[in-house]
Amino acid sequence: MRPIAHRGFSRIAPENTLAAFACALAAGFSSLHTDVRLSADGELVLYSPRVTPEGHPVAALSRSELSLSAGYLVPTLVEALDAFPDAFWNIEIKTPSAAPFFMELAQNMSLDSGKILLSSFRHEIIVQVAELLNIECGLLAAHRPPALNTLLYAAMPHPRLRTLIWHYEALDITLLEQANALGFHNWAYGAETDYEHQLCQEFGIQGIITDYPEFFGLSVSSGLQ
After folding, report:
1. Distance CA 177, CA 180 (A)
2. pLDDT tens, 3-30?
3. Position 29 in a domain
4. pLDDT tens, 183-206?
């Protein structure tokens, strides 16, 4: 089971920052998760909340304004990819407005498809990217669908769209087995205890987006250096 550092190592440095990613890699992770939004000045910024602590929509702020609100320099996706070229990245697109900018970036940078999994709760974005780009894609699922085909119908025609990323509370062993039988990989996010991480492994989960390196024998103290 591949551990993916959720927004870097946010117990040590602000989430989705270059420092958080560096700490995660120092702790022993080789895979990183990050969130991408589009700023008002057209930058793909790594920031998770939809609004700032002051209540301003991220989409209405420039990168510099967002950084001033956050209290640190909010990195761009380009900066993160350039800083850590050997990492595997799970890039989560938070808003449809970011999708065309990501596709342009992917084409300009010739991103390595073996080093990226693009995901989103906005499944129409992922289907579009899977149609147009040679990048592995995944669908985020926060609920257990009544039947697996309601989730997979749009994905089946696209061979690059073969990963499902489930919230821990939506995991269902029957659906996981069905997805595996159809050639899909199952990932999970939201597990919080050692037991829940172990259960994900028993369920055959191939990747887990996690805030807990200690549950994988990774060095928390190394991330502090």
Report:
1. 5
2. 999 999 999 999 999 999 999 999 999 9
3. yes
4. 999 999 999 999 999 999 999 999
The parent domain of residue 51 ranges over 2-216
Establish if 222 belongs to a structural domain. no
Closest CA relative to residue 118, chosen from 21, 44, 192 = 44
* Predicted TM-score of the model (pTM): 0.94
SS3 (DSSP) at 4: strand
Q: How far apart are alpha carbons 162 and 166 in whole angstroms?
A: 13
Instruction: Compute the CA torsion angle 95, 151, 111, 89 (nearest 10 deg).
Output: 80
Structure tokens at 31: 């895979």
Tokens of 163: 């990963």
Domain count, the chain: 1
- Does residue 224 carry a pLDDT above 90? no
Q: Give the integer Cα–Cα distance in Å for 221 and 185.
A: 31
Distance CA 83, CA 194 (A): 31
**pLDDT tens readout for residues 93-114:** 999 999 999 999 998 887 777 8
- Residue 7 near residue 69 (C-beta atoms within 8 A): no
Q: Is 146 exposed, middle or buried (0-12, 13-18, 19+ CB in 10 A)?
A: exposed
With tokens 């994900």, the residue in question is 200
Which helix (H) or strand (E) is 136 found in, with range?
strand 136-141
H or E element at residue 53: none
